[in-house]
């Protein structure tokens, strides 16, 4: 019966075995299959297990399967897929067997049937036929009937036996079974007779152990009980007869360890020596270090003559040695070695600590005393002002007293705030803030605040700002402002006449490390007053008729500088002056990569300044903003300038900036004449820009041409239309106008001058006089480099050409 195009099922009467032929075959193959099936019916008919035979015919390359398994059930259930897959797998194995030249017979590992809990192995035999493919016959032989039921079949393995077989030895003389441990498995193996195979039975160690425990439970339990009884007996016997002596020994060892610990911990040397045995009984580390330098016989003899106490030099150190004789062992002596030099050093340290303590008490008394004075004076003044205000009815006087009262209260509040800030610094409850700020703006604002106090005493202030004006920093602006404000006010109070100089600079190559110096020409401050740098209110401070300096200033500023990773240094000489040096580290903000155009590029400033220091301040400021500075003594005749800067009110010129040190900001004295404080950089720049704006407005008013009449435009239009170059004018002039705007934007003054000259030639050729004059004016402005005037002239030319073309194209 044909199951598939290449699978044939053989029908027969006796159904003990089933036969299937895979692949096209010859008639002889079918006859042979029937004979084999009939033979195996009688041979395997009585067996209950599954037996199979595979016959790979080398004549027609067909595969024959004869098995005791019912193949019809398998084919109907799995639609022949399992049967086909098994046949293909066996064909591949048998072909591999046929291709193996040195192996005529082979065995497979143990396998499991897919539909039964049965294991089997396969034996394959190869028959060679000259001129044809090899014929391979294979038998699947079950092992279920050979294995006891209580042994797991999955634990059996069939492996090659590498032990050589000696044909002269009888099977019963071969090696017996062997047991090996392979990882967590116990492997029991035995060789098979007349085959190079061995059968291996694998049992997990845990399963084997559990099985042994289960089978020998009562035996193990009885052994454990006997062992426990033996241990208890030994324990009670040792406790009754042996333990007392052991406890005594432990107690003695503990007492010995305690005694040795006490001896080791003594602050002086201890030595117990037996002169009979010349042995050291006990000693500590100090005595061990001194032993090589001691003559104990001599020391004992001298100590007996001096009541057991002597003083001597041991290793260049003075020691007091006390000796005691033992009552139980007369030849055993106790020596105590006391270091006199160390005692003297300890006494000196105690005296120094006492002096420091007394000094601290004295400093605390001085601090409280000076703090009381510093608080008492402004509070009394505040109280007196309040009483005067209460008893006064004049509105003008009341207004003045209210202002004075507000100033005094602000002074007291500032002192209390400083004390509170210092308390937070001492308790580590304050940390600097981090935000971006402009140092130049901070300095300008600070100088505006301190300027009234400076003007009140008639002092002169100089601000040398040597840091980039457009540089921003990241740090605590308020703290830096407080440090500078406190020191500037202190400098104003200690300076009766003269000047105060503020220098702002940084370390070379390190712009984040700022160096700020405040130098005055005052009376100077004493060393006692400078001691307030390390302890507040330690000495009384100076005062003038307007204000009183604070004993907290130096210490607070020094602590704040330390918080900013810096320090405060004070150098002073009596009747010469004082210099305060502030060093702080403040991170700089990232600089812009692209270089921007400076604010005063192209502006020329004439400096008519008498004071060298003021000239240095203004020159540095203007150069940083890109201005060109000309000193009046070095000015060449005929050289133009935009603004005049002077400190002499008599030297007045058009667009003049008058410098002063007492001006609060800037003041417009009259048209084109401004008075400004030269210490305020931003205010000076604003004043110069204001003068430039006024100059531009004046130039536009002067140079603004008269409006061209409509009749003139018509005349030029008729003249242009009658010319042969009208079409050339229309095509080239608007293009050149666009070039003028583009070249001005690119600041290409050479090309701009060439384009203006070409336009002037066009206007001259067409006899357009107004256009020619406008181009000449443009060339003059290009030569001067005045961008604003250049732009104005281009706009006028553009307007003229536009009106002309509109008239020409109605």
UniProtKB/TrEMBL annotation:
Keyword Protease listed: no
Membrane-related topology note: Multi-pass membrane protein
Residue ranges that the Swiss-Prot or TrEMBL entry lists as coiled coil: none
SUPFAM superfamilies from the UniProt entry: ATPase domain of HSP90 chaperone/DNA topoisomerase II/histidine kinase, Histidine-containing phosphotransfer domain, HPT domain, Homodimeric domain of signal transducing histidine kinase
Alphabetized Pfam families for the sequence: HATPase_c, Hpt, RcsD_ABL
PTM sites of type Phosphohistidine: 757
Residue span(s) of domain HPt: 718-810
Summary of the function given for this chain in its UniProt record: Component of the Rcs signaling system, which controls transcription of numerous genes. RcsD is a phosphotransfer intermediate between the sensor kinase RcsC and the response regulator RcsB. It acquires a phosphoryl group from RcsC and transfers it to RcsB.
Protein name: Phosphotransferase RcsD
GO molecular function, one term: phosphotransferase activity, carboxyl group as acceptor
Main location: membrane
Entry annotated with the keyword Translocase: no
Reaction(s) the record says it catalyses: ATP + protein L-histidine = ADP + protein N-phospho-L-histidine
Compartments reported by the entry: Cell inner membrane; Cell membrane
CDD domains recorded: HisKA, HPT
Transmembrane segments: 217-237
Boundaries of every Histidine kinase domain copy: 370-588
EC number(s) stated in the UniProt entry for this protein: 2.7.2.-
Keywords on record: ATP-binding, Cell inner membrane, Cell membrane, Kinase, Membrane, Nucleotide-binding, Phosphoprotein, Transferase, Transmembrane, Transmembrane helix, Two-component regulatory system
Family: Belongs to the RcsD family.
InterPro entries membership: HATPase_C_sf, HATPase_dom, His_kinase_dom, HisK_dim/P_dom, HisK_dim/P_sf, HPT_dom_sf, Ptransferase_RcsD, RcsD_ABL
Subunit structure: Interacts with RcsC and RcsB.
Any one Gene Ontology cellular component term annotated for this protein: plasma membrane
Post-translational modifications: Phosphorylated by RcsC.
